[in-house]
């Protein structure tokens, strides 16, 4: 319970700390005030009940008709209050969800936590961060507003209803037990607490597993959606290999997991409903039965019976908030646990110490005593010393699996596992990998990435695209298709995607260009032509290349051979120059 409250407080602080946080508190106060106004109308209805049934008992038609008009006025005013409170609460919901989503996204992107979370030593239960941000933020805000405001209203209302019930239940319950005369004064008040306490205990006993079942359901739903998204993104590869049966089988297994947990969830909700359903449908009638002894003893009239029954019902209903809200509370706790775990993981990965020291240099790139390891601790690559001067072309050559890509990740500041020091120049840098990435944008936004297309003249962007091999007809095809679908680039071949990615270098003109198999999908002639074009248009740029093929046509080039060298206890790669 303490851990759950801690999660609620932490997430609420993020909701309030966003833009307009103080305004949102005023907004919240207005919603609570409107909801508390419902207590007045409830008490007013209790008073009206006595007057209306009293008029019926006296067969006073005029008084009864007047009470009907009063009832209509109460309902109209209460409806206006309720609708306004609901509208303001929805506006507060989207404001808080925006603040919480911005905080979650900020934590995910800060210090490239989204990248570091993909490394092997991160918590295994941090799955589907997209779902946690998109769904859990909304679930938490809705749950905390719905249940939190209702709880505040119930706490305030219970005192008002108890005062009313205390004043009405002036008679005692008298009976004999084992030869002793027993008299319980104001028994209606004590009966309400005993009745709800026993019911709450039984509700928790029946519904306790719901939290873990909701948690698992959200996880499996997210896994299923993610699997389908991967199929959509890799449609070409799956179709070419004829992998439909395997993919369908995998989706079927994931959905079977959803269905299996859903059955458990439905079964548990059924058991809980076996108690809560009859409870909720009898809570308005039980008070009448409890008050009958006083009516039969002549202590109260019919109007008083109906009034005290309604007051008792309000007390019991208010005290039963936990019972009626048990299912949404379980869902709220599950969502907050997932969201809090995600935020904690992003903070932990950002705070994780790295043995690789990143420093800025005046102009050259320096690597000193660098040892790269896998997240499990296995040593990949050892580089005692490496210096690259501005304007050089350096080819980092070595066998597959040696750690060349990991070396570039370390230079980019995205690899924490290892020791040593890397001094990176302050000049602009661009890293292009084998798998070209493009944002959801039109062709010009894709080529300008990670900068904004608005920062460049459209004519310059067009020339860069043409320079990497796209003619006028290709440009028209890309532009027309992009107008209808932002993911049109996913229909291009691997070589075409790599060409477009290389166009970024022509647009951004980085001081340092790192290419990690960025031309592997091109044939040797096309690769040579593109690299020559890049060197021609970027004469001052430093090229650092990881490639299995000799990157010809780049002019004078220094080759750094990264080769493993067997030693007594293990194998450590050593650096050689050619």
Automatic annotation (TrEMBL):
It is a multi-pass membrane protein. Gene3D superfamilies: ABC transporter type 1, transmembrane domain, P-loop containing nucleotide triphosphate hydrolases. It is found in: Cell membrane. The chain crosses the membrane at residues 25-43, 63-88, 155-175, 187-207. Keywords: ATP-binding, Membrane, Nucleotide-binding, Transmembrane, Transmembrane helix, Transport. Residues 365-578 form the ABC transporter domain. It holds the Pfam family ABC_tran. The keyword Nucleotide-binding applies. InterPro entries: AAA+_ATPase, ABC1_TM_dom, ABC1_TM_sf, ABC_transporter-like_ATP-bd, ABC_transporter-like_CS, ABC_transporter_sub-D, P-loop_NTPase. Residues 29-331 form the ABC transmembrane type-1 domain. One of its GO terms (molecular function) is ATP binding. Its main location: membrane. The keyword Hydrolase does not apply. SMART domains: AAA (SM00382). Belongs to the ABC transporter superfamily. This is ABC transporter ATP-binding protein/permease.
